[in-house]
């Protein structure tokens, strides 16, 4: 075989090209999987949002009608508002409570380990069970109301009062998810070398200054992660309002994901449902990009 | 500026005693090095002075006042950490000014002090950079800058050069010495490197097992070690130790070593050593006191011939290793006179510098 040792012989594939072919071969199955089961349906949903489709007759193109209907629909507007309130409320509370708990555990309050284990257990409970437990606890005469008996309050319509229902669901969300993010924060806190705190103590910084000038800046990447993940989690919330209030009273706890489900599968308006998902998707996208920009600037600042 | 006094300081972690009763008086403006092997308690000692570790027993005084229960921030002590501990999200300027800002010093005053300190350390052009954009030596300077802007009573250094490469370490060592000559703040410097301790300090404290073995000026420790540990720890390469027997002969006292060697004890030392006649004893002599026999004759020398095992040349000088009995011994000769391994060479032991150690107490006689 005279060509064997000739570099770049006529029909031979060069070494680095062969490496590239192998690389493509390895990622191809994943790319195909994503194309067929992720991006395909996403594109299909975007297309569907311009059509009228009831799952029985063939879809017909109707242009922007679905979106025009949404703008005019008070239920959609209420759901959109609820979703934004829910994202804002639960993300900020999850972050604050998660960080607070992590700092408390890091500073070794007595019995911190047991609190941590106890709180983390909430993560092992299926969401449906969480909803059932809290429907029971949030019964108008339930345990949460009984806690208010000393203040002369005998009955609270936690889940059936339209101004209390959404905050109540946010509360349960925080109860369920904050301990998970507490663990994330704790990992972030423990990764900050003790040296910095010792140097700061000698530099005359008290506990508050140390938290403000050392902990927070060095924890920024973790905070960013928690905010993004919990915001995306809140944006897609479905089970909690669905099982605890069913979107009521009225539309007080109806969120976009619930509206998508109902519009698509209860009223069989697939095109309309697809339009709502596009809106929800756009919210999540805008939100993520905004945060990335914000924190990129922060990161750059810390790099110099 | 102020002196530091330690009185019977003890540190216990549970049942483990890291520091076992240390008393030390460090006068104002002195440069003191705490030196010892890993785990000897030197870093713990330093951290207790800083206030980062509680003192189990005893007292630490700063400028005559007991500071056991004073918070670190109120002690007016600055520390340079082993890993520098420069805040990564702050510029060098912000790092250096952090302590001043925490103490609510006016901005104009802060700027002036930081710029002065930066000028002393020659890091003015680095003030806007972040720690990760600095080289090891620059970080070291920035960390020292953070300490000196506060103009504290005492500087503490915790193995500050151990993260630098050998060349930079020597350079920064000189830098630290120059800094101390310039601002003369009381300095306590922890290191495991005895060369660093010897070259930098006015007074070296050798610690071992949570206790002070000896303290004093570097030359005292080198020439008159009080214990076997200090004799072996100070000096590089380390002192040679040989088992021997002190005998009374017609000509005077003499040491009989393994391999039939016999060294006559200098007359000036006879009285001191006489009580140990007939007893086994440890003979100590530094490599630099075992030299070529052709070197200009010294008094109190003993000649002997040995076969070389290993010959290590470092240019200016050559270390020669050979056996006396079971023990390996190191000597130092001029490179031009060194022989090949396996050849024999005539050497002289300069007994004016010998030490005898009582094996029962490990004290130098």
General description of the model:
The complex is a heterodimer of chains A (304) and B (365). Chain A has 304 residues and is mostly helical. Chain A folds into 2 domains: 47 residues, no CATH class; 239 residues, MetI-like fold (Orthogonal Bundle), CATH 1.10.3720.10. In chain A, 70% of the residues lie in helices and 1% in strands. Chain A has 12 helices and 2 strands, in the order H-E-E-H-H-H-H-H-H-H-H-H-H-H. In chain A, strands 1-2 form a two-stranded antiparallel ribbon. In chain A, strand 1 and strand 2 form a beta hairpin. The termini of chain A are far apart. The C terminus of chain A is likely disordered. Chain B has 365 residues and is α+β, with helices and mostly antiparallel strands. Chain B has 2 domains: 223 residues, Rossmann fold (3-Layer(aba) Sandwich); 125 residues, Beta Barrel (OB fold (Dihydrolipoamide Acetyltransferase, E2P)), CATH 2.40.50.140. In chain B, 24% of the residues lie in helices and 36% in strands. Chain B contains 9 helices and 21 strands. In chain B, the strands form 4 sheets. A 6-stranded mixed beta sheet of chain B has the order 6-7-8-3-9-10, sandwiched between helices. A 6-stranded antiparallel beta sheet of chain B has the order 13-12-11-14-20-21. Chain B has a 5-stranded antiparallel beta sheet with strand order 15-19-16-17-18, with no helix packed on it. In chain B, a hairpin with a 2-residue loop joins strand 1 and strand 2. In chain B, helix 2 crosses helix 3, helix 2 packs parallel to helix 4 and helix 3 crosses helix 4. Chain B starts with a strand and ends with a strand. Classes of the chains: A mainly alpha (304), B alpha+beta (365). The interface between A and B is medium-sized, with 20 and 29 residues.
């Amino acid at each position: 075989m005279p060509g064997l040792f000739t570099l770049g012989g006529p029909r031979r594939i060069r070494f680095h090209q062969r490496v590239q072919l192998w690389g493509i071969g390895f990622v191809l199955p994943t790319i195909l999987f994503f194309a067929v089961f992720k991006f395909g349906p996403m594109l299909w949903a975007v297309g569907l949002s311009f059509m009228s489709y009831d799952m029985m007759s063939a879809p017909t193109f109707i242009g922007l009608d679905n979106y025009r209907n949404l703008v005019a629909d008070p239920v959609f507007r209420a759901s959109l508002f609820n979703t934004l309130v829910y994202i804002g409320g639960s993300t900020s509370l999850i972050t604050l409570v998660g960080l607070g708990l992590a700092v408390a555990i890091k500073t070794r309050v007595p019995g911190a380990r047991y609190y941590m284990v106890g709180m983390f257990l909430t993560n092992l409970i299926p969401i449906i069970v969480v909803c059932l437990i809290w429907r029971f606890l949030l019964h108008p005469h339930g345990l949460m109301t009984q806690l208010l008996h000393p203040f002369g309050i005998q009955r609270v319509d936690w889940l059936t009062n339209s101004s209390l229902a959404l905050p109540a669901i946010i509360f349960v969300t925080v109860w369920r998810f904050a301990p998970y993010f507490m663990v994330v924060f704790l990992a972030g806190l423990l990764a900050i070398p003790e040296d910095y705190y010792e140097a700061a103590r000698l530099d005359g910084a008290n506990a508050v200054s140390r938290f403000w000038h050392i902990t927070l800046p060095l924890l920024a990447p973790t905070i960013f992660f928690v905010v993004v993940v919990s915001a995306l989690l809140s944006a897609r919330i479905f089970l909690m309002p669905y099982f605890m209030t069913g979107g009521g009273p009225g539309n007080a706890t109806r969120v976009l994901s619930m509206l998508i489900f109902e519009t698509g599968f209860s009223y069989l308006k697939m095109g309309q449902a697809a339009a709502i998902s596009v809106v929800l998707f756009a919210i999540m996208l805008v939100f993520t990009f905004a945060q990335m920009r914000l924190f990129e600037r922060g990161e750059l600042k810390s790099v110099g | 500026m102020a002196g530091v006094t330690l009185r019977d300081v003890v540190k216990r972690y549970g049942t483990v005693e890291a520091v076992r009763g240390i008393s030390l008086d460090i006068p104002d403006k002195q440069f003191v090095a705490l030196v010892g092997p890993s785990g000897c308690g030197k870093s713990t000692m330093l951290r207790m002075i800083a206030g980062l570790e509680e003192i189990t027993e005893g007292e630490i005084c700063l400028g005559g006042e007991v500071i056991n229960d004073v918070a670190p921030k109120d002690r007016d002590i600055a520390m340079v950490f082993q890993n520098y501990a420069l805040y990564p999200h702050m510029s060098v300027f912000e790092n250096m000014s952090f302590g001043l800002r925490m103490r609510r010093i006016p901005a104009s005053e802060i700027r002036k002090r930081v710029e002065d300190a930066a000028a002393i350390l020659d890091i003015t052009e680095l003030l806007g950079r972040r720690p990760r954009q600095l080289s090891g030596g620059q970080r070291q300077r920035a960390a020292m800058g953070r300490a000196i802007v506060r103009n504290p009573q005492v500087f503490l250094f915790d193995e500050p050069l151990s993260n630098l490469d050998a060349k930079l370490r020597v350079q920064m060592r000189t830098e630290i010495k120059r800094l101390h000559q310039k601002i003369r703040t009381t300095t306590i410097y922890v290191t495991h490197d005895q060369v660093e301790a010897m070259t930098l300090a006015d007074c070296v404290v050798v610690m071992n097992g949570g206790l002070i073995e000896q303290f004093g000026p570097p030359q005292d420790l080198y020439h008159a070690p009080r214990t076997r540990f200090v004799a072996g720890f100070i000096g590089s390469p380390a002192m040679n130790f040989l088992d021997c027997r002190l005998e009374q002969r017609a000509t005077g006292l003499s040491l009989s070593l393994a391999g039939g060697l016999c060294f006559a004890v200098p007359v000036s030392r006879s009285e001191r050593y006489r009580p140990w006649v007939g007893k086994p004893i440890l003979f100590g002599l530094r490599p630099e006191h075992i030299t070529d026999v052709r070197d200009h004759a010294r008094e109190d020398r003993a000649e002997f011939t040995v076969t070389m095992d290993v010959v290590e040349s470092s240019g200016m000088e050559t270390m020669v290793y050979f056996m006396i009995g079971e023990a390996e011994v190191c000597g130092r000769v001029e490179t031009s006179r060194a022989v090949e391994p396996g050849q024999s060479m005539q050497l002289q032991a300069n007994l004016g510098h010998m030490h005898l150690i009582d094996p029962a107490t490990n004290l130098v006689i």
